[in-house]
UniProtKB/TrEMBL annotation:
Keywords, alphabetical: ATP-binding, Glutamine amidotransferase, GMP biosynthesis, Ligase, Nucleotide-binding, Purine biosynthesis
Organism of this sequence: Flavobacterium agrisoli
CC terms in the record's Gene Ontology section: cytosol
Spans traversing the lipid bilayer: none
A GO molecular-function annotation: ATP binding
Binding site for ATP: S29, G30, G31, V32, D33, S34, T35
Catalytic activity: XMP + L-glutamine + ATP + H2O = GMP + L-glutamate + AMP + diphosphate + 2 H(+)
Shown chain mapped onto the complete sequence: 193 to 509 of 509
Protein name: GMP synthase [glutamine-hydrolyzing]
Encoding gene, per UniProt annotation: guaA
Function: Catalyzes the synthesis of GMP from XMP.
């Protein structure tokens, strides 16, 4: 039976012993896992933990700024690196999902590596890897290994030559959340839906442009804020919006429009391996659809994804 307090005590003393006075670098993503890993390590080694939070330009609207402030408020030794333009320029013209992931993985490592070279004498790389990440990365072999290359596991270039420390390696997601609660982390942060490392890039079908990112961030914000204000956010395991690579005809006043279609997706799941679409109330869907079409320039149609996994993966790419 898992007890968060005992886990914290044990892992903190284990980390202290293992790491000693060495310096550790850790990439924060804004998600639950890396945050809990950082707070645990901060407890063990304090300011010898150097956190780096990279903006890949594909985060949710305003997320980079607000989460960075939150991290600073938690006393973490964190540096925010805004590399949005670099990522977006490398992604220009790229439509293939796996190529997008590879580019984002590579650029992330380059940015992260540049940053960690600015720190002297770092010996360790800490990661927020949790048990399901470990399983999924080692169990899928052969052609299906490329179903989705989760770039946050094992994506370490040789030239970094750092030792790896993964305090959450044996934990499931709900255990990570309970550990986070024990550590006094903001419940809102702990209750956040999972969000993929490649961010909105795999929810923009086809090629990525700054304008498409802007549209999707705005749509996503209406949807997520709506879920929160209707008390539905915590009832859903993961939700987000997808920008489709099609235009559809609409009318506005006397004018014919030819604009983008967005899909909304909300799923129930325990581990992301299987998922059911959520029966969101019709009144909610009606309100959100109106809000999106009225508030987000460039969108004239909203559809709701009623597919479960398998076979439909949670992300569309
Ligand atoms: P799928 O789409 O495979 O997603 O049903 C299952 C869970 O994994 C997330 N996901 C990713 N996370 N890098 C990540 O860090 C990725 O490339 C990636 N692809 C999917 C997805 O958001 C869902 O929570």
């Amino acid at each position: 039976n898992f007890t968060p307090n005992a886990f914290v005590e044990e892992i903190v003393s284990e980390m202290k012993e293992k790491i000693g006075n060495d310096k550790v670098v850790l990439g924060l993503s804004g998600g639950v896992d890396s945050t809990v890993a950082a707070v645990l390590l901060n407890k063990a080694i304090g300011q010898n933990l150097y956190c780096i939070f990279v903006n890949n330009g594909l985060l949710r609207k305003n997320e980079f700024e607000s989460v960075l402030d939150q991290y600073k408020g938690m006393g973490l030794n964190v540096k925010g690196v805004d590399a949005g333009e670099r990522f977006l320029s490398e992604l220009t013209g790229v439509s293939d999902p796996e190529t997008k992931r590879k580019i984002i993985g590579r650029v992330f490592i380059e940015v992260f590596d540049d940053e960690s070279h600015l720190l002297t004498d770092v010996k360790w790389l800490a990661q927020g890897t949790i048990y399901p990440d470990v399983i999924e990365s080692v169990s899928v072999k052969g052609p299906s290994a490329t179903i989705k290359s989760h770039h946050n596991v094992g994506g370490l270039p040789d030239y970094m030559k750092l030792k790896i420390v993964e305090p959450l390696r044996m934990l499931f997601k709900d255990e990570v959340r309970r550990v986070g609660a024990t550590l006094g982390i903001d419940p809102e942060l702990l209750g956040r839906h999972p969000f993929p490392g490649p961010g909105l890039s795999i929810r923009i079908l086809g090629d990525i442009t700054p304008e498409k990112v802007r549209i999707l961030q705005d749509v996503d914000k209406v949807f997520i804020d709506g879920l929160k204000s209707w008390g539905l956010y915590d009832k859903v395991w993961q939700a987000g919006a997808i920008l489709l690579p099609v235009n559809s005809v609409g009318v506005m006043g006397d004018e014919r429009t030819y604009e983008k279609v967005v899909a909304l997706r909300a799923v129930e799941s325990t581990d992301g391996m299987t998922a059911d679409w959520v029966h969101l109330p019709y009144e909610f869907l009606m309100k959100i659809s109106n809000d999106i079409i009225n508030k987000v320039r460039g969108v004239n149609r909203v559809v709701y994804d009623i597919s479960s996994k398998p076979p439909a993966t949670i992300e569309w790419e």
